[in-house]
Amino acid sequence: GEPVQIAMSLDIASISSISESDMDYTATIYLRQHWTDPRLVFDGNQSFTLDARLVELLWVPDTYIVESKRSFLHEVTVGNRLIRLFSNGTILYALRITATVACNMDLSKYPMDTQTCRLQLESWGYDENDVTFTWLRGNDSVQGMERLRLSQYTVERYYTLVSTSQQETGNYPRLILQFELRRNVLYFILETYIPSTLLVMLSWVSFWITLDSVPARTCIGVTTVLSMTTLMIGSRSSLSKTNCFIKAIDVYLGICFSFVFGALVEYAVAHYSSSQKCAAKAPSQGPTSELAKEMEEVNITNILNSSLASYKRKISFTSIEISSDNINCSDLTMKTHEKIKFVLRNKMHRIINYFTIQNPSNVDHYSKLLFPLFFLLVNVLYWAYYLYF
C-alpha cells in the first residue's frame, strides 16, 4: 500500500558537553514518533498505554541517529519507552536517548566562532517507498532549545528540514534539526586577552628606565617573554588535539609575543649602541689622541709635486732619502687594486655609519610612541577582521 507516514517531534532535555577536540556534542533527547496502523483500530474514543515490553509485538520504525558515535536508551529503573495506542490505530512511540553526535567545527575564529551542528534522524532499512518522515508541527516540533544553558555557548537559532538520503541501496527519508551555537567570548577575554594585553603594556615600562639599568630592564623583558609563553601553552592545552588549526586566539597571542619580544630586542640594540659609542669616545680622551692625529692619511703624490715645484731639495721618508733629480713620481702613485680597496673601505665605512645609531637614547624615545601606536593599530585590524568578516 501507500508508504507509512511517520510524524516526529523532539524535546531536547540537555546538551551536556560540546567538545572541540573531538568535534562532537552529547545530548539527551526525548524522541516521539507518531504513525497509524489500521490493524490496531478499536471501538471507542479513549486511548490507553501499553507496557513497554509489548514493543516487541508491534511494528515500529527503524529510526537511527545519523553520525552518532555513541548512543544508548535509558534503562533506569525500567526501559524509558512509552507506547500509547489510540482508537483510530494511531501509535505514539516515545524514547529517551542519550547520544554523542559528530559536529564538524571550523575553529579558525575561535573563540569568536559560531558553530552549526545537526541532529539527523533517518530510516535504516525502509526506503521512501515504505515510509516517509515529517515533522509533526514544523519548527514547533522541537522543544527545549530555549531552555538550554550551556557553559560556553548560546543557542542563536534553530530550524528543521526534511531531506532524503541517497544511498547505494535506495533513497531513505531523513529529518534534520540544525542549530547554531555562538561561543561566549567574555570568558576568554578575561582569561587570555586582557592578561596578554597587560603583559605587552608591562614590557613598555622598560622604555622609561635608563639604559644603564641593565638588571631591571633585562628582568622585565625576560619575565614578560616567559609569561607570554606560559599563556600560549595554556591556551593550547585545552585544545591539544586541534593544534593543526590556526585559531584567532593563537594569532592574538602571537602578536602579543612579538611585541614583548620586540621590546626585549629593542633594549639589546639600544644598550649595544650605547656601549659602542662609549668605547669610541674613550680613545679620543687619552694620551694617544695626538698619535691618532699624526696617523692621518696624506696624499704623498701631491706633497711631492708641490715640493718639487717650489724647492729643489731632498725629501726623506722614514729614513729613505730621495733626490729631486732622480725621483720618479709615477712610482709613488697608488696602484689600481689599492685604489679599489681604498674606495671599498670608504663605502663600507659610510654604510656602517648610516646604520649606526648616533644617539642611543633616541631609541627609547621613539619606542615610547611607536610601540603603543602599532599595537593599537594591530588590535583595531584584528578585532575588525574576526568580528565583522
Looking at CATH, which topology of the largest domain would you report?
Answer: Acetylcholine Binding Protein, Chain: A
- The low-confidence parts are 287-300, 311-324
Instruction: Classify the helix fraction into a percent range.
Output: 25-40%
Which class of secondary structure composition applies to the elements? alpha+beta
Name given to the CATH architecture of the largest domain = Distorted Sandwich
Provide the gyration radius in Å. 42 Å
Figure out the total of helices: 8
Write a compact overview of the structure shown.
Belongs to the ligand-gated ion channel (TC 1.A.9) family. Gamma-aminobutyric acid receptor (TC 1.A.9.5) subfamily. GABRP sub-subfamily. InterPro entries: GABAA/Glycine_rcpt, GABAAp_rcpt, GABAAR_pi_TM, Neur_chan_lig-bd, Neur_chan_lig-bd_sf, Neur_channel, Neuro-gated_channel_TM_sf, Neuro_actylchol_rec. The protein is α+β, with helices and mostly antiparallel strands and 389 residues long.
